[in-house]
Amino acid sequence: MIKKYLLYAFVISLSLSACTDDPDDMITPVEDLTTLNLAMGNPSDAETDASYEDNYLMEIPQYALSYSRQRGTANWVSWYLNEEWLGDVTRRNDFRANESLPAGWYRVDEDDYDYSNNGFARGHNCPSADRTRSINDNSNTFFMTNMIPQSPKHNGEMWNELEQYCRDLVNQGHELYIVMGSYGVGGVGDSGYREKLAGGKITVPRYIWKSILVLPTGANDLERVDEETRIITVLTENKNSASGQPWGNYRVSVDDIEAATGYDLFSKLPVEVQEEIEVVVDDGPVG
Ligand code: MN
Ligand code: MN
């Protein structure tokens, strides 16, 4: 019996020491994943303070966001994506109000977009398919605080292709820091132009953007971002006709988004690094 335990101890210590050179060991452990959603920065210095009515920070393990009470949507949603987040849970579709908003704030509910009258999809910021490790992970992408009124073709075609490309990058050995946001007023869905839904409680954004920082899977992510690091940034109008072109045609620089929104993306990176990479418009592969 004792010999058997000694043998086990020997095998375990062997496998532990073997791990140090194993590239799989450089993958971020699952238990650390949930702390990474804002690792590259909080673009608008959102705070979990109800006096920040239009820049209210909400963090859950699956993603972090800045919520606007006046717009009834997030300003931006930020999340980290690597292969650990991708599992085989099927889409839950449990769209629901987020009861963790501050007391007295209107909670947008699953019926407020009223597609049959308004013609807009409940478009995810952090995609359902980026959070498939567990039922809870996937379900938490269906809070209405993670949705925007998005033109159905924009959502289902061009944007879906960009989301899929992100997961392709992950499956090719990358890890991603993603921020998606929206701003402005007025979009064109299946029933024409709308500015507000639900009697004014929800603003239809005019512009939808996303910025994706791409790193080969590894450790010490903040320290290894440099002028060679790929960032894919896309700025689109929220209308069905936007899907007439592939997402790659809408690439802009991070500086373009920062100028339009007043945010500071990737603010945890050294200023010199931001200056180098935020001016670049990506021209890499699109699929
Ligand atoms: Mn979508
Ligand atoms: Mn920046």
Q: What is the correct CATH architecture?
A: 3-Layer(aba) Sandwich
Radius of gyration from CA coordinates: 20 Å
Return the CATH class.
Alpha Beta
Whole-number total of structural domains? 1
> What ligands can be seen in this structure?
manganese (II) ion
Strand content: 15-25%
Poorly predicted parts: 1-25
What does this entry look like structurally?
It contains eight helices and 13 strands. The strands form four sheets. The chain has a seven-stranded antiparallel β-sheet. It has a two-stranded antiparallel ribbon with strand order 4-5. The protein has a single domain, classed as Extracellular Endonuclease, subunit A (Extracellular Endonuclease, Chain A), CATH 3.40.570.10. Strand 9 and strand 10 form a beta hairpin. It is α+β, with helices and mostly antiparallel strands and 287 residues long. One manganese (II) ion binds next to loops.
Properties at a glance:
8 helices; alpha+beta; 287 residues; 13 strands; Extracellular Endonuclease, Chain A; two-stranded antiparallel ribbon
Task: Quickly describe the structure.
With 287 residues, the protein is α+β, with helices and mostly antiparallel strands.
Draw up the topology in text:
Elements: H1 2-19, H2 30-33, E1 56-60, E2 63-68, E3 73-81, H3 115-118, E4 121-124, H4 135-139, E5 147-150, H5 152-171, E6 174-183, E7 187-189, E8 192-194, E9 196-197, E10 202-203, E11 207-216, H6 221-224, E12 230-237, E13 251-252, H7 254-261, H8 271-277
One manganese (II) ion (MN) binds at residues 258, 264-267, 274, 278.
